[in-house]
What does this fold into?
Amino acid sequence: MFSPFVRGPRITPLNEEFLSEVRRTLRGRYEVERPLGRGGMGLVYLARDIRLARPVAIKFLPPERAMSPVHRERFLREARIAARLSHPHIVPIFSVGELGDVVFFVMAYVPGYTLGHRIRTRGPLPAADTARVLRETALALAHAHDQGVVHRDVKPDNILIDGSTGSSFVTDFGIARFGIGPISGSRTVLGTPEFMSPEQARGLALDARSDLYSLGVVGYYAASGRLPFDAEDPYIVMTQHVTEVPSPLATVAPKTSTAVASLVDRCLEKNPDQRPQSGNHIADGLAALPAPAPHSVTRIRKLLTLGRRWSVLAPLYLVAIGVVGLPLVLAQHLNLQGGLLIVVLAATWVVLLPPLFLTVAQLRRLFRRIITLSEPDTAPGASPESA
It folds into this structure.
């Protein structure tokens, strides 16, 4: 049973007046199209870069926050931190702007969905996909940590999955910080309770190993569809992270490989010294595992499976036609008329219609799959900032 406590991001569009101002301000550079999601500090819209003729995602600071110097600086700091990170599995930042009340930054658009959306709508990931997401995210975090950046909010809704390649991308550095220590003031706690490390829940100084604990929670959730700790009250969840030991992943997700289950359990150690000490250590531990099949191959396999199921019905249908056709042939040769002919025809259609309807339904489903196969994998709210 999937945890209802891990909620998806709520998309709250900009008000029409401000959106009109945004479009006027960015006219000639970007064409703002539609909302994609909500980040920790702002709202994300799909837009088109007019000069480069490519889709981008633009994160806007809402006008009520843009008036606050603290929120404004924090928003711009997120852009500056993310812009310093150049890695294949981190969403790149293209530009940042302050044009009056319009404060924004532009980043790559990832046509796909968040890991959180994928798990909430379709359940746990296959074992190979779980390993791939963990490995790619660990490599991204290792790069950020090498640059002195602690993310502080690693969670499924901050990991994007490209719908065509299956690659993972880390995003939303809204509460990230250079170096260690509380983010603002003593014992301040920011983050998502379900994915907090024990030291983060206690408001202590953080380092890279806090992100790796959060990555362990992500892996636990991805493999099993449930959280290691769950409660309606977020403060209870934070307390559980500090005081309770989660059930081993292998007991709640038996199909998970031993290597993945062991790494996830190590990431969830209360003592940071007992966890993997870097994202590279996690990636190295997962490197030898079999790679998942490309998404296109997976979809083709599903299509072929459906085709095989339908092919079983085809001979049955032909047999049914032969069986019911025989009485018609006999009726014609025996010159059956009147009530007897009606009885024979009625019996024929009673036998014929069920397989006919079933075959038509299977054909429609097969055609839908063929159409879907030609389209990219996308999901509502997919963007570089859907959390």
Residues 296-373 form one domain. The longest helix spans residues 295-333. The chain has three domains: 16-108, 112-294, 296-373.
